[in-house]
Amino acid sequence: MRLRSFRVRTLMIAVGVVALLIWGAKMASQSYDYSRRAREYGAQERGWRAIASRNRRPEWKQFHSECVQYFARLSAKYRQAMWRPWMPVAPDPHAPGFDQWQEQEHRAKEVASDPPPPGLRPPQSQ
Fold first, then answer.
1. What is the CA radius of gyration of the chain?
2. Would residue 57 count as lying in a domain?
3. CA-to-CA distance for 38 and 80, rounded, in angstroms?
4. How many CB atoms lie within 10 A of CB 119?
5. Which of 1, 31, 105, 121 registers the highest number of CB atoms within 10 A of its CB?
6. Residue 105 has pLDDT above 90, yes or no
7. Which of 41, 116, 27, 47 is nearest to 78 (CA)?
């Protein structure tokens, strides 16, 4: 019985086919992830739109419209990325109000620093 010998060209073609299959599976997975994100952000947009239509307080109207626009942009971005999963996708921007919250947290930490452990005197300001 004679063993079949493979030529280098045959092995290169086999490696190329396997690489294409792996790349295709990765792109399909990434496309599905983008599709899921687009659906999720679309649902968030519809939710914020409903909240904005029910709320009549003028001080919240601006925030609600920012949230609607934010989630609409994310939904559109991921719907577009779903059809081109090989293209890079920019990082998501911060949600409305995040920067103000972060600044508020930073100020709160500066004001209320941790007390020194028992037995140690607090540092003296000069």
1. 27
2. yes
3. 9
4. 5
5. 31
6. no
7. 41
Instruction: Tell me the pTM.
Output: 0.71
- Count of domains forming the chain: 1
Residue 114 has pLDDT above 80, yes or no: no
The Cα 112–Cα 90 span in angstroms is 37
Average pLDDT of the segment spanning 14-22: 97
Q: Are 109 and 102 in contact (CB under 8 A)?
A: no
Nearest to 64 by CA among 37, 46, 78, 77: 46
Q: What was the pLDDT predicted at 6?
A: 76
- Domain contains 18: no
Tell me whether residue 9 is in a domain.
Answer: no
Angle (nearest 5°) at CA 48 between 47 and 54: 95
What residues make up the domain containing 38? Answer: 34-86
What does the mean pLDDT of the chain come to? Answer: 88
Distance CA 64, CA 70 (A): 10
C-alpha torsion sign, points 34, 85, 95, 42: negative
Instruction: Please report whether residue 47 resides in a domain.
Output: yes
